Amino acid sequence: MSDPSVPEVLSVPEPVEGRAAVRPRRFGAWYIAEHRLLLMRAYGSTILATSIGNPLVYLFALGVGLASLVQAPLGDGRGGEVSYLAFVAPALLASAAVTVASEEFTYPVLSGFKWNPVFSGARSAPISSAQIADGVIIAVILRMVVTCAIYFGVMLLFGAVPSALGVLGILTATLTGLAVGVVIMAYTSTVTEDKGQMAIIQRFIVTPMFLFSGTFFPLEQLPGYLQWIGWISPLWHGNELGRVLAYGLAEPAWLTVVHVVYLLAITVVAWRAAQVIMTGRLDK
Amino acid sequence: MPAPVISASDLTKKYKEFAAVDGISFDVAPGESFGLLGPNGAGKSTTMRMLGAVSTRTGGDLSILGLDPDRYGPEIRSQLGVVPQADNLDQELRVRDNLIVYGRYFGIPRSVVAKRADELLEFAQLADRAKAKVDDLSGGMKRRLTIARALVNEPKILLLDEPTTGLDPQARHILWDRLFRLKEQGTTLVLTTHYMDEAEQLCDRLVVVDKGTIMAEGAPAELIRLHSSREVLEVRFGSDRNAVVAEQIAGLGDRVEVLPDRILIYSADGEAELGQLLRQGLEPITSLVRRSSLEDVFLRLTGRTLIE
C-alpha cells in the first residue's frame, strides 16, 4: 500500500529543454561544413590558383601538345571520330575532382583527429559523430563543385566540349571524386598513427588509378588482364560517364546506368562506413 | 534539497574486461561546485566523458538535467560547457573565430554569437588577442579561451577536466578567479583534478576516486577531519635514512607515513611531535609543520600519493 502523503514516483517529465537541440539535430552537419569551409578559406588563394592553373596546364599539354602526336583514330563509338582534346577533357575533369578528394580526405581528416583535434571539440557540442563525418564530406563536395565548375569553364575556352550536356560533367565528376573520397575518408578515420599511409594512398592507389582508368587512352588499349583495374576503378566509370555527356560516347545504355549505380553504391556504402568508424572513434 | 542536475548511480564504463569506472554513485545539486579528486588513471576523464553525454555508459543509471544521455545526448550537450583535459581549440583559426565556429555548433545565429564572442573574450581577458592565432597564445591563455568557448552556449553545467594542469601558478590563479566568478553566478561546476589545493579552493564537495571507485565523499574540510589529523609534521632525513629513522619513531603521533623522500607524522600538534623527535636525539635535515590537506586524505585512503 502506498502512503497517500507521499506522491507516487514522480513521472519523468517530458524534457522541457528537449527543444534546446532542435537546430543542431537538424543542421549539425552544416555547422561542421561551415567550419571546414572557414578552414579552407585560409588557403583559399591556393585553391583558386590551382583550380585555374591545373586545367590550363593539363588541357594545353595533353589536349594540344600530346594530341598532335596522337595519330590513332578515337571513335565516339558510333562511327564518328572525336579529337583527342574532346576525348581526354572529360576524364581530366573527373581526375581533378579525385585529386581534390584525395587531398581533402587524407591529411585534413587525420589532422582533425590528431594534430588539430577539432572533431573531439565538436563532439562535446550537441553534434553527433555521424554529423561530423557528414559535415566534412559536405564541405569537400562544395570544394569539388567549385573546382570542377572552374575546370569546365576552361574546357569551354579550349573548345573541348562538343555537347551541351557536357555541363552535367561537373556533377558526374564531383560524384566520382566523392566515391573515391569517402572510401579514403573511411580508411583515414581508422588511422591513429601516421606512418606515411597518406603518401601510400597517393602513390600506390590514386596515381595508378589515373593511369589505368582509361583517362589518357581507352581502357580497351590495355591488355585484357589489366582491364579489370578499370572496371573496379570509380574513376573509369566517371571518365566514361563524362564522355557520354561531353561528346556522346556511344555505349550500351545499361553500361551508363552501371556507371551511375556503381558510383552511387560506393558513395553510400563508404559514407556510411565513415560515419560508423568516426562514431566508434569519437564516442569511446 | 532541490532536484540534482546530475545523478549517477552505480555508473560503470567497461572497455572489454577492464572497468575504467566501476560502479560510482553521486548527485550534484544545482549551483554546486563538485570535484572528482584522484590520480591519473583513476577513471576521472572517463566519468567526465559520460557526464558530457559523449561516452555511453556500460552499466548503471545516469541522469543529466533530468535527461538520459543515451536518448537525449544533443539536448544535454546543448546545455553543457565542456573543458577537456587537452585543449582542442582549432589552432588554425583565430581566437575570436574559435568562439564563433563553436557557437554555431549550438545553432546560435551568427549575429548573436558574434556579440557573445566579444563578451566572452572580455571575460577571459583575451579581448586584445581576438585576432591572434591560437598557436601564438600561452598555455594559460589557451586554457582561458577553452573555458570561454565552453561558455558560448550559456551552459547550466560546466565540466572541467584538469583545468589547470600544466599551468604556472600565476595562470592558475587567474583561472581560479574566473571559475570562482562563474560559481558566484550560479553555474554548476564539475571538475576533476589531482591538485588538492585546487580541490580545496574550488569544490564545495568532492569524491575521492581511485581505480574507478569512490573512496570517500564530502566537503574538503570534512574529509580532512574524518580521514586525517589536524596537523602534519614533515621531516626529511635523506632518502637513505628515512626508513631507518621511521622505525625509531613509529609510536609518534596518530600515525606515521614513510614516503621515499620524507616522513609524515600525523598529529593534532605537529610542533609537540617535533619537540619529541628532537628529544630522541634525531635531527632532521628539514622539518615542516603544516595543516592536513586532501593529499593526506588520499594517502590515507589509498596508500599512495596523488602525483606519482
CATH topology of the largest domain in chain B: Rossmann fold
Strand content of chain B: 25-35%
* CATH-derived architecture of the largest domain in chain B: 3-Layer(aba) Sandwich
The helix/strand order of chain A is HHHHHHHHHHH
Strand-pairing-aware structural class of chain B: alpha/beta
User: What pattern of helices and strands is seen along the backbone of chain B?
Assistant: EEEHEHEHHHEHEHEEHEHEEHEH
Strand content of chain A: under 5%
Helices of chain A, by number, come to: 11
Mean pLDDT of chain B: 91
Globally, the shape of chain B reads: globular
Quick tags:
heterodimer, A: 284 residues, mainly alpha, 11 helices, 68% helix, disordered N terminus, B: 308 residues, alpha/beta, Rossmann fold, Alpha-Beta Plaits, 2 domains, six-stranded mixed β-sheet, four-stranded antiparallel β-sheet, globular
What do these coordinates show?
The complex is a heterodimer of chains A (284) and B (308). With 284 residues, chain A is mainly α. Chain A has one domain. Helices cover 68% and strands 0% of the residues of chain A. In chain A, helix 1 (22-42) packs across helix 6 (129-157) and helix 7 runs antiparallel to helix 10 (234-247). The relative contact order of chain A is 0.14. Chain B is of the alpha/beta class and 308 residues long. Chain B has two domains: 6-218, P-loop containing nucleotide triphosphate hydrolases (Rossmann fold, 3-Layer(aba) Sandwich), CATH 3.40.50; 229-291, Alpha-Beta Plaits, CATH 3.30.70. In chain B, 36% of the residues lie in helices and 26% in strands. Chain B contains eleven helices and 13 strands. Chain B has helices at 44-51, 69-77, 95-105, 110-123, 139-150, 169-184, 196-202, 220-227, 242-248, 270-279, 294-302; strands spanning 6-15, 18-28, 33-37, 59-64, 80-83, 157-161, 188-193, 205-210, 213-218, 231-236, 255-258, 263-267, 286-291. In chain B, the strands form three sheets. In chain B, strands 5-6-7-3-8-9 form a six-stranded mixed sheet, sandwiched between helices. In chain B, strand 1 (6-15) and strand 2 form a beta hairpin. In chain B, helix 8 (220-227) packs across helix 11. The radius of gyration of chain B is 22 Å and the shape is globular. Classes of the chains: A mainly alpha (284), B alpha/beta (308). At the A-B interface, helix 1 and helix 5 of A face helix 2 and helix 3 of B.
